[in-house]
């Protein structure tokens, strides 16, 4: 069980759990269009065991049971994402009514159970038809995305508690276009530079379009990694500083200062879109809240042979999760405090935090992970960070992108053969924190 009490976090503090459409829905029927993850995952070599999200957790059909799990756990809120290709199969134009009907049922189901809907518009499942037109490399994506955002607002906006534009722009830009790990799997600095700008331009364009429609509680969710030098040598400290720029400051400086950090720009400059600086007022258009995803820290060393970004991540000494990420709760306190001290005083939410384990329902290491990170939230609050809520990643074991189904982040175990859901001990720990009870369903 956790060593914290619910009241420690403040009266209106929200607890929730998070998921993403492609990772749980399955249900590739009823007019849903193709996404870049459908093609990326079936292309050999991209994903562990070539696993795909075709069936995933069958949440498309089993959502009432999943919402019951949230309600029974005592959670206040559910962070979920809309699948763009389910709502607009070609990315622009014709709306798929059956897709609208699905999210109508899902959102009404949340409200019936007293769960606040925290929506994300884009969690990585770009319609393939838009990838055919260049995807995040095409500046027009800002307008495609804003039109989609307005369509969501018109259909569901009155029932959403908050709306986030993009989940983890670093992953959309760098992991997907520079490192080749996620769809569309590019390894190209020019593609990465363009995607890094267009994803933030799309965010800002959508925020302005939503505001014009009366949208409220608008934000974005970024992921952060605390970057540290592998040694105290100046060149390794410099490598860590550069990684901090690539991963953290590009997004923080862009969103809150309207200016990309000069150390990262020095590497990206020859590849940036023309006149990108003229877009920075749109990129930094004001938002109402900011979502922080945090999982781990990284140790970096100088690696001059590596070309444009002369650094390498090295293996760290701390206890690791099943995905190999070091467990470092102090990093969450550090990042929340840093954001509120250096960047913004808008409300912060921890929109994702959690750990991967392998198969099983008894997960004491995950309870310890959550306990440590909840303690970090309290410590950050004491240091002045206005943290209003915390979402565990994830409600369910699910499709972990390039890792396939092997790595399990869920509070609830999923047997993929039978689709049976079984709450893990970590779910019980939240239930006991949130309801004071340790009920079985
Ligand atoms: S992969 C990733 N995740 C996990 C995913 O399930 C979720 O959808 C994401 O929001 C858990 O939380 C996020 N994040 C990518 C982390 C960066 C990996 C760094 C690899 C460097 C080569």
State the separation between the terminal residues, measured CA to CA: 18 Å
Order of helices and strands: EHHHEHHEHHEHHEHHHEEHEHEEEH
Number-wise, the strands total 11
Which structural category do the helix and sheet elements fall into?
A: alpha/beta
Arrangement of strands in the largest sheet: 1-2-3-4-5-6-8-9
State which percent range the strand residues make up.
15-25%
Mean pLDDT figure: 97
The value of Rg in angstroms is 20 Å
What is the oligomer described by this structure?
single chain
Largest sheet: 8 strands, parallel, barrel
By DSSP (H or I, 4+ residues per run), the number of helices equals 15
The unreliable regions are none
Bound molecules: ligand NCW
Describe the global form.
globular
Q: In which range does the helix fraction lie?
A: 25-40%
What is the element layout, followed by pairings?
Blueprint: E1 14-18, H1 21-24, H2 36-42, H3 59-72, E2 77-81, H4 84-87, H5 97-112, E3 116-122, H6 128-131, H7 141-156, E4 162-167, H8 169-177, H9 189-212, E5 218-229, H10 234-257, H11 262-268, H12 280-283, E6 289-302, E7 311-314, H13 330-342, E8 348-352, H14 364-382, E9 387-393, E10 412-415, E11 420-423, H15 425-435
Parallel strand pairs: 1-2, 1-9, 2-3, 3-4, 4-5, 5-6, 6-8, 8-9
Antiparallel strand pairs: 6-7, 10-11
Helix pairs in contact: 3-5, 7-9, 8-9, 13-14
The site of ligand NCW has 15 residues, from helix 8.
């Amino acid at each position: 069980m956790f060593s914290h009490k619910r009241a420690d976090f403040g009266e209106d503090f929200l607890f929730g759990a998070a998921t993403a459409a492609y990772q749980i829905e399955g249900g590739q029927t009823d007019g849903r269009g193709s996404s870049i993850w459908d093609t990326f995952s079936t292309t050999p070599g991209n994903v562990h065991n070539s696993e795909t999200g075709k069936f995933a957790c069958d949440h498309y059909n089993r959502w009432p049971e999943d919402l019951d799990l949230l309600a029974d756990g005592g959670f206040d809120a559910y962070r979920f994402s809309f699948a763009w290709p389910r709502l607009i199969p070609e990315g622009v134009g014709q709306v798929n009514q059956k897709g609208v009907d699905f999210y109508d049922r899902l959102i009404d189901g949340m409200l019936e159970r007293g769960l606040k809907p925290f929506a994300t518009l884009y969690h990585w499942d770009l319609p393939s038809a838009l990838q055919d037109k260049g995807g995040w490399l095409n500046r027009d994506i800002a307008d495609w995305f804003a039109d989609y955002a307005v369509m969501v607002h018109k259909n569901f906006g009155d029932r959403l508690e908050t709306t986030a534009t993009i989940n983890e722009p670093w992953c959309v830009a760098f992991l997907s276009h520079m490192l080749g790990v996620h769809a569309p799997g590019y390894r190209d600095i020019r593609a990465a530079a363009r995607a890094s700008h267009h994803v933030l331009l799309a965010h800002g364009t959508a925020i302005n379009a939503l505001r014009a429609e009366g949208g409220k509680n608008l934000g974005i969710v970024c992921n952060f990694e605390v970057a540290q030098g592998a040694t105290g040598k100046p060149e390794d400290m410099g490598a860590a500083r550069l990684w901090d720029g690539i991963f953290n400051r590009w997004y923080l400086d862009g969103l809150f200062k309207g200016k990309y950090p000069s150390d990262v720009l020095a590497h990206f400059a020859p590849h940036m879109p023309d006149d990108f600086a003229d877009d920075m007022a749109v990129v930094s258009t004001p938002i109402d809240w900011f979502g922080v995803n945090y999982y781990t820290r990284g140790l970096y060393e100088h690696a001059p042979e590596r070309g444009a970004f002369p650094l390498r991540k090295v293996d760290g000494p701390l206890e690791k999760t099943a995905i190999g990420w070091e467990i470092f709760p102090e990093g969450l306190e550090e990042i929340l405090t840093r954001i509120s001290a250096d960047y913004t005083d808008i409300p912060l939410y921890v929109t994702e935090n959690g750990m991967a384990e392998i198969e099983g329902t008894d997960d004491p290491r995950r309870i310890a992970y959550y306990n440590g990170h909840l303690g970090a939230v309290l410590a950050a609050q004491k240091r002045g960070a206005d943290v209003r809520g915390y979402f565990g990643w994830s409600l369910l074991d699910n499709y972990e992108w390039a890792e396939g189904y092997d790595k399990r982040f869920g509070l609830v175990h999923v047997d993929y053969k039978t689709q049976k859901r079984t709450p893990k001990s970590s779910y019980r720990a939240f239930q006991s924190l949130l309801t004071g009870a340790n009920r079985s369903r």
